Amino acid sequence: MISFINDYSEVAHPKVLENLALLSNEKNPGYSNDKHSKIATNLIKSKIDDNNAYVQILVIGTQTNLIAAAAFLRPHEALITVETGHVHDHEVGSIESTGHKCITVKGESGKITIDDLKRVCSDKYWGNAGILNIKPKMVYISQTTEVGTFYTKEELTQIRKFCDDYGLYLYCDGARLASALDCSDVTLKDLAKLCDAFYIGGTKNGALMGEAMVIINDKLKEDFFYIAKQRGGILSKGFLLGIQFETLMSNNLYEKIGEHQNKMANLLREGLKKLNIEIINESKTNQIFAIISNNILDKLRNKFAWETINTSDDSTEIRLVTSWSTKKEEVNSFINSISEYLENEVC
Amino acid sequence: MISFINDYSEVAHPKVLENLALLSNEKNPGYSNDKHSKIATNLIKSKIDDNNAYVQILVIGTQTNLIAAAAFLRPHEALITVETGHVHDHEVGSIESTGHKCITVKGESGKITIDDLKRVCSDKYWGNAGILNIKPKMVYISQTTEVGTFYTKEELTQIRKFCDDYGLYLYCDGARLASALDCSDVTLKDLAKLCDAFYIGGTKNGALMGEAMVIINDKLKEDFFYIAKQRGGILSKGFLLGIQFETLMSNNLYEKIGEHQNKMANLLREGLKKLNIEIINESKTNQIFAIISNNILDKLRNKFAWETINTSDDSTEIRLVTSWSTKKEEVNSFINSISEYLENEVC
Amino acid sequence: MISFINDYSEVAHPKVLENLALLSNEKNPGYSNDKHSKIATNLIKSKIDDNNAYVQILVIGTQTNLIAAAAFLRPHEALITVETGHVHDHEVGSIESTGHKCITVKGESGKITIDDLKRVCSDKYWGNAGILNIKPKMVYISQTTEVGTFYTKEELTQIRKFCDDYGLYLYCDGARLASALDCSDVTLKDLAKLCDAFYIGGTKNGALMGEAMVIINDKLKEDFFYIAKQRGGILSKGFLLGIQFETLMSNNLYEKIGEHQNKMANLLREGLKKLNIEIINESKTNQIFAIISNNILDKLRNKFAWETINTSDDSTEIRLVTSWSTKKEEVNSFINSISEYLENEVC
Amino acid sequence: MISFINDYSEVAHPKVLENLALLSNEKNPGYSNDKHSKIATNLIKSKIDDNNAYVQILVIGTQTNLIAAAAFLRPHEALITVETGHVHDHEVGSIESTGHKCITVKGESGKITIDDLKRVCSDKYWGNAGILNIKPKMVYISQTTEVGTFYTKEELTQIRKFCDDYGLYLYCDGARLASALDCSDVTLKDLAKLCDAFYIGGTKNGALMGEAMVIINDKLKEDFFYIAKQRGGILSKGFLLGIQFETLMSNNLYEKIGEHQNKMANLLREGLKKLNIEIINESKTNQIFAIISNNILDKLRNKFAWETINTSDDSTEIRLVTSWSTKKEEVNSFINSISEYLENEVC
């Protein structure tokens, strides 16, 4: 079975496992006070060229996002997200469980727009009662988005400007940041300049697990560790996360993983397009949303795996994801199989 | 200044104040253990013909709604409301402050539709991740709605059926229930048959303050008092609320207040319509949403007060609300003033 | 039945009811934007001689305390209280419902001591894990305390000093502040100088209900109204609270109520002491805790009411509370009844 | 440096790392829907001889405990713990962050007693206001305790009986369960019979991380997964936890780890006792609390590591913990070093 279901289907990148095994006789202090966490932190600070940044590696994406809401927002402050945002429809109300509202906006191709923000930050739209309304405070974006698109530097710069004008924080969920860093014009340094906080995703980019929260805005740094610990986000064995990010941040491994994911995705995308298969929200990232006829999918099913998004009588929107482990041969096998079925169909 | 701004602009209905004054030498036990609270409770049970109902008078609407969410829902369960629902845009995120998500739907004329409910209760719409999604559990409606409409018995019956099919609770915010009881075909007994819980609003219907929560579904009754107390919803002087609801529920005072509100609103509505003024979401309740030219409003401003909903260069949508204290002469004065200005304008 | 059960057993002080009745034809804007709330606010600012204070009248004590916790503390910050503190054992976990821990200390005669504070603010006591522990942040006291004692100016000054040294807030629950202002050397101005925030209790001092939160520390003022509204603490008919505090704060009514409460309590206390009845935590406030033999109590029961604190085979600790409405004759009647029974017993 | 600081200082037991490496080419479905999680679940069910148990492997102890509070308790229900309980003083208020109070009791040698429970479950102790008080609902214990002791089967049986009588849940934190299973007379099957829920700790017993929540009481099972996901407790790569618990639960690895920890601890304990060093709360588990003179500790410091609990001018209470990796030679080296210093001191 060749799987394009997800980028979190395998244990970890071999280099990560190798380093964990190498260090298995080492004894480390707990709660991120170890040297590997410090090295990882310094590597990240150096990559973003900001020595004042606060870095804390947490475990899981949902947890990272809810800790951001708990730590950054006061009780009456809300987060703004597109409807397809992970915090809105894939986290069972994690943000609300910390007491904060998610204000949802439509967005375009999975991305929040300035018009979206204007609408919810004007009193007129968000009710007419002024002080009786929720206070929008933090813009949540993800890079790449849930629908496989990414923000350009120009788009992020405009959102940043809006946030400055309206006193909002900008927070970026980087669960799939490796892919975005490879195909967008937004670098890690740009993210650090444009966001108040963001996280560098490990789980979907070769780590066993781990998401490195990077806080730029001084106001948001104070006592972050306490709140992360309170919500169960701090591993006693924090050095495990330190070792992994030390590995990912060294020798450009993170960047190489992003590059490989996208290369495999492009191969897949171009192959599908040549076969006249419709791509939704086409982009250069490692997620492909394609509409394929049910006849073909029925024939692929015993050899390949994917995620179904939407299905109709004739065709189905599926999601294909590539990862650090995706092989060229696997992609070719998928394309060739469809090609064969299409030829047979024609006959 | 003649005010149509709201139905909570005055101290209280004279009968309420009279009874409070009459009983001012009485000493009563605290925390709703007094005879007036018991009498009020029994009057309500008798009106809804349900001796097993649990009744607890709370203080304020926002508080009542948030206590309902806290007491009725488990952490992963969400409330469904139309976008104009009070819990969504007039309570600064009160529901979320208890940890629960508000799922919003478009609605029609301020009312939730079966199509709305189908959409958010199907896995397909609300993300495609099954167990990763929020669990819709309680339908929030208000009678009357925030835009001045009301549900018919047929509409409520269909919503009830949907709730039964999908395992949802139906909860009704009755902040302006007196008006609805007068003009809709839904009686208090119907509400008690169709809802799992609802509240009978006092604040906007002649009381100083007070909202009587009525719980029908046995599952939702247990320890409600504890949770209400925890959230600051239980007055030590609970007898004050008891005396007021004893008053409102006696001699059909509540019903008479609803009737008067609607009578004055109808007078106002028909007067406006005769002057060809556009009414939005026309209904028979005590809230009127009308579009009036800015020229006219400028001239009315020094004599009358209203709430502005939306304004454009030419005209403005305003809200006019009648209350137990609104006088026929006040309504006529408003209509006549507009009429005069319109005649002058023509010349 | 003559009742010493509580100071919240009656509707309200006649002057409060009179003013509400007088203003019953007035229409007022909602949500504390009315002139009475402004006048009340200014009267309070003037009494505390601090024109920068932020004043917001809320409804109930439990609610006021939980809003203080929600608004003043970040998620990992805890409140410190004596074990007998209202927030710890009379509010069903209201503080915890906002996500904050109550750290409890023993105290002395219901009052927190510097030794208590030192113990919980040193790493050694509160676990030895530093960053893994809760962060003590707000000292909660009440004036008068739950056991009828009060803090002196010297005691409050020392607590303030400790708070300054350790970066803590000092918050005072003034549910029974009128009594304390009369018998302690702590004035309203002192409270405003020594506390970061405190509330002036209305409910137990002649109002129908209402507690005036006074915030002195600028850091704690921002957006307080939002959070109070979110938790259901803001009355749409806020002018009702404004009218009542305008009344209480005028013509020294609040001070007179405190004086009367204490005068009646002293009469009662001295009477009991003359009869050799043991007083617990003796003080000058309007709460008396006395140990009376069960034989006597059995005889008093059909004519007088009190609250039972603790009971043994022989005797019972009871609480007697005086209020604005307590009459000299009622006190004398109680003392005389005991005196008679005691004389008969001897024979 | 030989470390007795903790049992979570190393990457993982070699067998765990070996199995992760072996399976590194396998693709698994996400969110615990993989075969390894199923096998691990079945192994646990089989060990506790309860096929109806619900098992879900979570990531970290603090998280596991807070999810238990969130999922098992209604808002007004509190958890009871000894003062030294992990949830009380090592989790930054994690339980309170879910809205629930921790009622603390003194305990004896780190264990909750029936007298403790009686005190807080009687109205008289926990305030005298009945319905105004918190509702004690879940007894939290840990096996082994934070001070290195363990409950006997007789003690647990009595606590269970109390819980049955008072309608309480019994929940056991098994962070160090391997050690307890080896030295106490309480088996996994006993735990499953006596508790409503408990967790089998992985992090401190050879896993990278992972805690297997086992729910016995049917009432507590419903929708547990949702709430665990909402709080960030569900790994997308859940199979990582499945593989680890499959490993620990196979071939008695978990039992062997507990046996080894205790054997090393006993060696250490007996060695210290022979040198007349005082042991606090002596037990048979893998934590030793000993009082050693500061002179000796100063000499040990450059070769050995431990945790300091309390220190005075002369001596210090230290904690020594053994783990799956502790070697006999390391223990002997520690004992011998002390022995040498003691001999020198004498001279």
From TrEMBL, chains A, B, C, D:
Family: Belongs to the threonine aldolase family.
Domain Aromatic amino acid beta-eliminating lyase/threonine aldolase: 58-293
Keywords: Aminotransferase, Pyridoxal phosphate, Transferase
Pfam family, any one: Beta_elim_lyase
GO terms assigned for molecular function: transaminase activity
Coiled coil start-end: none
PANTHER family for the chain: L-THREONINE ALDOLASE-RELATED (PTHR48097), LOW SPECIFICITY L-THREONINE ALDOLASE (PTHR48097:SF5)
Cofactor(s) the protein requires to work: pyridoxal 5'-phosphate
Name of this chain's protein: Aminotransferase class I/II-fold pyridoxal phosphate-dependent enzyme
